[in-house]
Design brief:
The protein is an alpha+beta fold. 47% of the residues lie in helices and 24% in strands. The longest helix has 38 residues.
Length: 347
């Protein structure tokens, strides 16, 4: 009787292992001091070797401290870093014939996190180089055939689209930096007035083309802010560009300060957005869903970067909008902040 039970249990264990392999589930099995893991479950995704090493090490530590307390279907959570992002790995424990199986429950989510970051890094950097070469040749042809009006017009359009692709890729590179914990925040000192004038001059042709009335209100023209100049310039440019795209005929740019820090507001009288859209508008790859939006280029990356840059400065960003009434976006940058390398937060 005992012999038959042992044979039955042995078959059960073998079936469990085979079952997990067929499902592609990542697991770590402990049999006394022997450790078995199913690395083949992740062969379709490029994972750093240190991920496996770290996970197995943490499970070993948990196993050694709790081996006498572990019961079937006990759920445990181990925190792990995935490209700089803190992720909870959820394991369920199954005990069979002196073997303890720690099965990763949310492995699909883990795959997705690695895939998303890897694809961002790969696409961003691999597309950047050929675009730079194409842009250089277009500029060369335009100069060489400046008198050929039709050719020059075609090349000008191609160059414009190349710049647009380059801008999208640059944004993806910035996104990948936030995901991979590779963002540096500088402490530059600069004039708010000079920064606004620089950004407004950049968009002046678009503002005139849409016949937009622009109002600039700078409460203290001598005010200087301590922040990363290039990143704050990107933030302000993104907000103004969105107001030009989705606004109507008036944009107000307002800056002021108080004891705590610096405030910047961009207000338009455009289409606005619903409360539901406002809840998600700062998430990655989110865009407003309307007919106008389908005619405008963009990946829904800009406002994600705006939020992350502001948060990296220990600041805050808020949005107020009403459908057909307009939108107001406010950012706050504290007077004093300590920049950090670990900047990615949220989903």
């Amino acid at each position: 009787m005992d012999s038959n039970q042992q044979v039955g249990n042995k078959v059960d264990v073998e079936n469990i292992e085979k079952f997990f392999e067929i499902l592609g589930k990542f697991y770590v099995c402990f049999e006394g001091n022997k450790v078995i893991d199913n690395k083949s479950a992740f062969t379709d995704v490029v994972l750093p070797p240190e991920f496996f090493t770290s996970v197995v090490h943490k499970l070993k530590d948990y196993y050694s401290k709790n081996v006498n307390k572990i019961t079937d279907f006990k759920k445990i959570v181990i925190n792990e870093q995935i490209h700089g992002k803190s992720v909870d790995l959820e394991f369920v424990v199954i005990s069979k014939k002196n073997k303890l199986f720690f099965i990763l429950v949310n492995d699909n989510y883990v795959r997705y996190e690695f895939f998303r970051t890897s694809i961002l890094n790969t696409l961003s950097h691999e597309l950047k180089t050929p675009l730079t070469i194409i842009k250089g040749y277009i500029q060369y042809v335009m100069k060489s055939f400046a008198n050929e009006s039709s050719l020059s017009s075609i090349m000008a359009t191609m160059l414009s689209e190349t710049y647009r692709l380059e801008e999208i890729i640059s944004e993806l590179i910035e996104v990948s930096k936030f995901y991979s914990d590779n963002v540096m925040i500088r402490r530059d000192v600069f004039s708010v007035k000079s920064l606004i004038n620089m950004v407004v001059n950049k968009f002046e042709p678009k503002i005139k083309a849409k016949d937009i009335r622009l109002e600039i209100e700078i409460v203290n023209e001598d005010f200087e802010v301590i922040a990363d100049f290039e990143k704050i310039r990107y933030v302000i440019s993104e907000l103004i560009e969105n107001s030009i795209k989705y606004g109507k005929d008036k944009i107000v740019i307002r800056t002021f300060e108080d004891f705590d820090g610096f405030y910047f507001e961009v207000i338009d009288n455009g289409r606005g957005m619903t409360k539901e859209v406002q809840k998600n508008i700062f998430n990655l790859f989110v865009r407003t869903d309307n007919e106008l939006n389908r005619k405008i280029y963009g990946l829904g990356v800009g406002l994600f970067l705006v939020k992350k840059i502001v948060e990296a400065h220990k600041g805050e960003v808020s949005i107020k909008s009403k459908v057909n009434k307009g939108t107001k976006v406010t950012i706050f940058i504290p007077r004093n902040f300590n920049p950090s390398h670990s900047l990615f937060a949220g989903k």
